[in-house]
Amino acid sequence: MIKYQNILVAIDPMQDDQPALRRAVYLNQRLGGKIKAFLPIYDFSYEMTTLLSPNERISMRKDAISQRTEWIREQASAYLAAGVDIDIKVMWHNRPYEAIIREVMEAGHDLVLKMTHQHDRLQAVMFTPTDWHLLRKCPCPVWMVKDQPWPESAKALVAVNLSSEEPYHHELNKKLVWETTELARLVNHTEVHLVNAYPVTPINIAIELPDFDPSVYNDAIRRQHLIGMKALRQHFSIDEKMTHVEKGLPEEVIPNIAEHLNVGVVVLGTIGRTGISAAFLGNTAEQVIDHLRCDLLAIKPDGFVSPVDPNSDED
């Protein structure tokens, strides 16, 4: 079955240009399916206006929703005129990420696209709190679209974790590579590269153990990761020249390889860690994300359950 047949585009209310919608149409023209342009809106002043009756406040909400719906229809007019199947939905909700995730659950969306903003000084992608909530909690893949033109001859880069002994990481690696190669085959036949970062020698070991040989340690770790990469690439018949095993931190290695290869999208897995564990441990994926300068496609492992309750009362 072809994936990404029911795409949700999170509309940016702050600008007229909608790169995420443009990317969704690009996918739709190659994969088929349908698109929903979705926008949650909220104005706290409407709730604080004590001079208005409840019915008047409801009427004001409806007017705001109607105005935004027409605004989105104008943004999508060229696509609609060309026959692209785009549904438009605007709803009143004070937490955008919850509204998006609930819509994904209720309508069975299989991909969310949302625009990210480019940081002027560092030329890195800057993520909003809503972006982070989606990356951690959305049950379907999330594609963060950079607000710049797609690079010519852009490649896809899959970041895999070959150091973990946890079984779910092996299965997630396979899922990432399979979904990326399928997407590349169906959409634009782009090159798919794999990248893995392996750790440097721990300084404390080198200091505390006089007989410790860092070069032997590094060689052993590198061999281990090369063996893991070989098994993964052979499973998917990927050429060795399309794989990259580099020493260093993932948040340094992966963005560097992506920039060197002129990558259009980096694909990585997010386990969705939240709460105290996220605050103190952090997600490797999130550290990588913060350094990327290109599009990002984040995919959850099979069996992931979103912490957002689809049945709780809406605000």
Automatic annotation (TrEMBL):
<keyword id="KW-0963">Cytoplasm</keyword>
<dbReference type="GO" id="GO:0005737">
    <property type="term" value="C:cytoplasm"/>
</dbReference>
<feature type="domain" description="UspA">
    <location>
        <begin position="177"/>
        <end position="300"/>
    </location>
</feature>
<protein>
    <recommendedName>
        <fullName>Universal stress protein E</fullName>
    </recommendedName>
</protein>
<dbReference type="InterPro" id="IPR006016">
    <property type="entry name" value="UspA"/>
</dbReference>
<feature type="domain" description="UspA">
    <location>
        <begin position="4"/>
        <end position="146"/>
    </location>
</feature>
<dbReference type="Pfam" id="PF00582">
    <property type="entry name" value="Usp"/>
</dbReference>
<comment type="similarity">
    <text>Belongs to the universal stress protein A family.</text>
</comment>
<comment type="function">
    <text>Required for resistance to DNA-damaging agents.</text>
</comment>
